[in-house]
UniProtKB/TrEMBL annotation:
Pfam families registered for this protein in UniProt: ACT, PALP
InterPro entries registered for this protein in UniProt: ACT-like_dom_sf (IPR045865), ACT_dom (IPR002912), ACT_ThrD-II-like (IPR044561), Ser/Thr_Dehydratase (IPR050147), Thr_deHydtase_catblc (IPR005789), TrpB-like_PALP (IPR001926), TrpB-like_PALP_sf (IPR036052)
Assigned keywords, A-Z: Lyase, Pyridoxal phosphate
TM spans (from-to): none
Reactions accelerated catalytically: L-serine = pyruvate + NH4(+)
EC number from the UniProt entry: 4.3.1.19
Name under which the protein is recorded: Threonine ammonia-lyase
Species classification: Bacteria, Pseudomonadati, Pseudomonadota, Alphaproteobacteria, Rhodospirillales
Length: 404
């Protein structure tokens, strides 16, 4: 079973008036960095913060009166759960969401706040899915799959209709891949409207399940990724065949590049984006030569990032840019020595954040001490100037790199 452009157009008609047309915006600063004419589709601006509302609503609207009255069930640990819960409640459809037992409480609480009943079961999404199917069969509920369903795929494909309506001369679409629902729908619409458009999928390097499946390789996925929204170990049966036929290439992006993309979107484009939502931008930053000189569109598919993760990414970004550094400085273990160094750093324009004073470790002589100073600076040149001045003044100093 497959889908066609007419299916996506029907989905668009169903969603019209119920979901907003999210903006497709020119990313001028990122365009300069990548040498492209880049446009971002801001699916993170949906009420629940992701594109998943499209497919969920398309599926829910397809139910007849009896099925709607009986209710729906889905398995998800994130955005799909919230999309189903939000629109099922709005439409008066009872919704049950099965989540793995270790799902963060904030996600459970948010899904319940949208009106769904949440059941925690199993260690993985596969466990949750099997449990959800059992309940669906027992209670006569309609199962709403997160990606492997023609109506879900058609709903997600409406993203491409809107992008090409906003920017008809797009040459390349760069789309994150988890289970494949978004890229399958978008590729179907885009290739039907513009057969020569290039569609490139992006997977997290730790979860290359679609790329490996299509290559006939054993699927090997593991590890903690900040792109948990696309950390899928088994792509859909339907989606993989559409991707095989219509997607031109799949690229992998590592964790450092995903972090850099989230950081860049916040600092350059003023957009708060989750790791999966930044995957398309990560692909452009990782290999700008591939896209240089072309008109490119990518989907910011979600903005539901944990505040602690975002804070960590922003601080690590400052470290990578050497706007926050750790210096190890040697000084005599005598009264007033630390104050002199602190005054010296202040005079040099550095702002001290933290100081760690070591007398017993680092193999320092008994009459010497090492201090590790976390310092805010302007840029790498400023750091080099501070280190040079410290050495000239008789204070041995070295830069301690904490983030690769």
């Amino acid at each position: 079973m497959t889908i066609a452009l007419d299916d996506i157009r029907r989905a668009a008609a169903v969603l019209a008036g119920e979901l907003p047309v999210t903006p497709t915006v020119a990313a001028r600063r990122l365009s300069e960095q990548t040498g492209t004419r880049l446009f971002l589709k801001l699916e993170s601006l949906h009420h629940t913060g992701s594109f998943k509302e499209r497919g969920a609503l398309a599926k829910l609207r397809s139910l007849d009166e009896a099925a709607a009255r009986q209710g729906v069930i889905a398995m998800s640990a994130g955005n799909h759960a919230q999309g189903v819960a939000c629109h099922a409640t709005r439409l008066g459809i009872p919704a049950t969401i099965v989540m793995p037992a270790q799902t963060p409480f904030t996600k459970v609480e948010r899904t319940e706040a949208y009106g769904a009943r949440v059941l925690l079961h199993g260690e993985t999404l596969s466990d949750a899915e099997a449990f959800a199917h059992d309940i669906a069969a027992r209670d006569g509920l309609t199962f709403v799959h997160p990606y492997d369903d023609p109506l879900i795929i058609a709903g997600q494909g409406t993203v491409a209709l809107e992008m090409l309506d906003a920017v008809p001369d797009l040459e390349v679409l760069v789309v994150p891949i988890g289970g494949g629902g978004l890229i399958a729908g978008m590729a179907t619409a885009a290739k039907a409207l513009k057969p020569r458009i290039e569609v490139i999928g992006v997977e997290a390097g730790m979860y290359p399940s679609m790329k490996q499946t299509l290559a006939g390789e054993p699927v090997a996925c593991s590890g903690a990724t900040i792109a948990e929204g696309i950390a899928v170990k088994a792509p859909g049966q339907l989606t993989r065949e559409i991707v095989r036929d219509l997607v031109d290439d799949i690229v992998l992006v590592g964790e450092e590049c995903l972090e850099r993309a989230v950081y860049t979107l916040v600092t350059e484009q003023k957009l708060v984006v989750e790791g999966a939502g930044a995957a398309g931008v990560a692909a452009l930053l990782d290999d700008p030569a591939r896209f240089r000189g072309r008109t490119v569109g990518t989907v910011i598919c979600g903005g539901n990032i944990d505040a602690r993760v975002l804070a960590s990414i922003l601080m690590r970004g400052l470290v990578r840019q050497r706007r926050v550094v750790r210096l190890r400085i040697g000084l005599s273990d005598a009264p007033g020595a630390l104050a002199k160094v602190a005054q010296f750093l202040g005079d040099a324009g550095g702002n001290i954040v933290e100081v760690y004073h070591q007398r017993l470790f680092h193999n320092v002589p008994v009459k010497m001490a090492d201090i590790d100073v976390v310092l805010e600076t302007r840029d790498p040149d400023h750091v080099d100037a501070i280190i040079a001045k410290l050495r000239e003044a008789g204070y041995p100093a070295e830069l301690m790199d904490d983030v690769s």
